[in-house]
Fold:
Amino acid sequence: MTFSLPSSTFPLAGWGAAPQQSCVVFRPERETQIQEIVSGAPTHSVLARGMGRSYGDAALNQDAGIILHERFDHFLAFDDKAGILTCEAGVTLSDIIDVVVPRGFFLPVTPGTQYISIGGAIAADVHGKNHHLDGTISSQLIDFRIITGDGQILTCSRNENSDLFWATLGGLGLTGCILQARLQLRPVESAWMTQQSLRCRDLDTLLQKTFEEDDLFQYSVAWVDCLARGRSLGRSILLRANPASTKELPPKIKEDPYRLPQPYRPTVPFNFPSLALNNFNMRIFNQLFWMNHRDHQSPKPLREYFYPLDRIHQWNRVYGRPGVSQYQFVLPLESCPKGIQDILETVSESRGASFLAVLKKTGPANEAPLSFPIEGASMALDFPNRKSDLKPLLERLDRIVVQYGGRVYLAKDSSLGAWALPEMYPALNQFRDVQRKYDPNKRFSSSLARRLELLGSA
Ligand SMILES: Cc1cc2nc3c(=O)[nH]c(=O)nc-3n(C[C@H](O)[C@H](O)[C@H](O)COP(=O)(O)OP(=O)(O)OC[C@H]3O[C@@H](n4cnc5c(N)ncnc54)[C@H](O)[C@@H]3O)c2cc1C
Structure:
């Protein structure tokens, strides 16, 4: 049978805007078309893509096939007694929130943006501000359906094709194309959170508050000022929260506790010139950020607590045309205080390489061989790509992370060398075995997989 589905070839990038690579893009509308692309598209390999919110090259496949999921955005079933949702892989978390919160449910695990697809969330095994208590998205995932490289459509769960279930979580699209998923949602009493904001004057205070008091809060995240040095190294604002019960809400909100406020969402209209994000401006910004956050407790709409960056449409343009590299690492419990200090000192010595970082406590790892979180603490730093000495700096950070027994988050990575992958992900060969079992001809691949030699050579 000849292959007849249309495609367009154009440059694509991730959220970080670099690298930008030419890909052969398909927009299927039916599962049978995805099957046709997987089995017959005349490209050396194919890869699913969701909302393109991974920062680097995880959702790129240079000079090869990309399967967009924008037309797989349907809700298939919702059991509003049990809180079980079935939807296609292209449905976004934002779509889910709009539908389920007014019915009294929320996502048990959600990352820092709501504009990602369910397929992308599973493929990155995303974690949120409650990883220390609730794990990754795997904990809410009942099962999913997937097309594998040998053309089969399989259902995967903890009991059925469980090797493929775990390899797909965090497998970055390399085990197949997820078609639909079933999720267990969590009941909530309102669309609000009770947020406590706490200023921590240095790294020791931040880690002490994060580790000693975090079980009091379901959600916890800290914004760390990377320009602070010396005794102020690690100066940060810790934002912790619990879902608000109706009792805690002010009377006006109590009248309609599930109403989701729709805030005005301005757009960054163009790529900012590189001068806009200089050291001087960012020092002022960080100082204002610090001064604006007094220690206090208040109700917050859940979207404001979970997704502060989403309030500005296309905020990544503030980094200008060269874009941004986000470097997220996690270090094990025992080594994280010293390791984070080393990394912050290295970054702060590099004079303005990164302005702000996000720190989260992480709980125990799950069974997925390429899942990112391990028990300890994770930190994400944004580096403007315009910095000429960024590559050597990131290589230094990779070595520090390996030295302390940590790993880098592949869904955000664009720079790691292949040498580091087996050091950071010791279960890599387990992943490769499962991947090979379901895709013996390596029909699925990505630019990231080739850069990191993730699929091995055999
Ligand atoms: C502002 C911001 C905040 C973030 N915060 C967090 C956070 O707190 N925690 C966290 O864990 N992550 C976080 N991320 C990363 C983000 O959640 C992941 O990169 C996620 O995978 C993006 O989903 P997507 O739909 O955009 O997927 P894409 O970026 O399009 O793809 C990501 C990967 O998923 C694969 N994929 C996509 N759809 C499918 C499918 N249907 N079948 C198989 N594979 C598929 C792709 O091949 C690719 O490897 C954040 C990203 C941004 C931009």
